[in-house]
Specification:
Number of domains: 1
Structural class: mainly alpha
Low-confidence stretches: none
Order of helices and strands: HEHEH
Mean pLDDT: 88
Distance between the termini: 24 Å
């Protein structure tokens, strides 16, 4: 998004492995279509579950930098 790099190139940890290290059942979901069946599976299986859902933040730049500026200019 054209922000200066201040050396904060952090990456997310492996949340599924982290959850599993505490005895939690961890899951990855890689598509929107797979989410509902996975949630049903989690409700049907006893225990604590964590679902790692990747988020595509590519729309943030469009909405926050261009869309809001355009809408603000119209006020």
């Amino acid at each position: 998004m054209n922000f200066p790099d201040y050396g904060m190139t952090l990456k997310n940890p492996n949340f599924v492995a982290y959850a599993q290290s505490y005895g939690v059942i961890g899951h990855w979901v890689h598509s929107a279509a797979a989410l509902a069946p996975l949630i049903r599976e989690c409700f049907a299986t006893p225990g604590v579950h964590l679902i790692d859902v990747p988020i595509d933040y590519s729309d943030n730049e469009r909405v926050l930098n261009r869309g809001i500026k355009r809408l603000s200019a119209q006020l």
